[in-house]
């Protein structure tokens, strides 16, 4: 069972470039990235701007900070080590807030879900996404998780190159009357 409170001061900032406790070797093809666990006072505008650039979720940002303070979400802002230029964001939910699906995220089963992945266009196709996912996996391990999931629509199958395997496909309603086929992927992250 995961403790109900998560002390983010333990991992407020980090450079995990030389740390990866998975069985997979740290890929030298991934560029260096640092991360910071955002707080509402300093980072809310930046996180909201990233969500606006992404095209969804900007209105949810205040609730994400509340969830992080409650220990049910971990957020990270990823940036270039040399310049501190933000390249994107991502996080882990410990509960599936939208659908309550314990296959997706469940603290009792030590399963989290990578969520809110966003990478600015100018940093795409350069290996940054793979590095962001590695950092999320390490944050999950630090939190005591045994597995991470992620999900998406037609392009979600592309996450298989990072070691995630499809475990279910089902329709989900993301608003309105339309149900969209959603692919759910899973990766064990236990050392």
Q: Order of strands across the biggest sheet? A: 1-2-3-4-5-6-8-7
Order of helices and strands: EEHHEEEHEEE
- The amount of helix comes to 10-25%
Terminal Cα span: 17 Å
Domain unit count: 1
Question: Which stretches are poorly predicted, pLDDT < 50 over at least 5 residues?
Answer: 1-26
Protein name: N-acetyltransferase domain-containing protein
InterPro entries: Acyl_CoA_acyltransferase (IPR016181), GNAT_dom (IPR000182)
Organism: Lobosporangium transversale
Domain N-acetyltransferase: 35-186
Can you describe what's shown?
Residues 1-20 have a biased composition (Polar residues). GO terms for molecular function: acyltransferase activity, transferring groups other than amino-acyl groups. InterPro entries: Acyl_CoA_acyltransferase, GNAT_dom. This is N-acetyltransferase domain-containing protein. With 191 residues, the protein is of the alpha+beta class. An 8-stranded mixed beta sheet has the order 1-2-3-4-5-6-8-7, sandwiched between helices. Strand 5, helix 3 and strand 6 (147-152) form a beta-alpha-beta unit. It contains 3 helices and 8 strands, in the order E-E-H-H-E-E-E-H-E-E-E. The chain has helices at 40-54, 61-70, 128-142, and strands at 13-14, 34-36, 73-79, 86-93, 111-119, 147-152, 165-173, 179-188. The longest helix has 15 residues, at 40-54. The protein has one domain: Gcn5-related N-acetyltransferase (GNAT) (Aminopeptidase, 3-Layer(aba) Sandwich). The model is unreliable at 1-26 (pLDDT under 50). Helix content is 21%, strand content 28%.
């Amino acid at each position: 069972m995961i403790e109900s409170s998560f002390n983010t001061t333990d991992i407020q900032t980090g450079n995990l470039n030389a740390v990866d406790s998975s069985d997979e070797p740290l890929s030298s093809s991934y560029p260096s990235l640092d991360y910071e666990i955002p707080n509402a006072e300093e980072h809310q505008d930046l996180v909201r701007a990233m969500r606006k650039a992404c095209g969804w979720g900007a209105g949810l940002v205040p609730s994400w900070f509340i969830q992080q303070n409650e220990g049910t979400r971990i957020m990270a802002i990823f940036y270039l080590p040399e310049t501190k230029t933000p390249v994107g964001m991502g996080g882990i939910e410990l509960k599936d807030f939208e659908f309550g699906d314990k296959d997706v995220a469940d603290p009792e089963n030590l399963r989290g879900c990578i969520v809110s992945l966003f990478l600015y266009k100018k940093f795409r196709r350069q290996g940054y996404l793979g590095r962001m996912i590695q950092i999320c996996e390490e944050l999950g391990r630090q939190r005591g998780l045994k597995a991470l999931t992620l999900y998406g629509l037609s392009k979600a199958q592309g996450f298989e190159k990072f070691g995630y395997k499809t475990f279910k496909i089902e329709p989900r309603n993301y608003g309105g009357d339309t149900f969209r086929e959603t692919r759910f992927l899973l990766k064990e992250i236990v050392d």
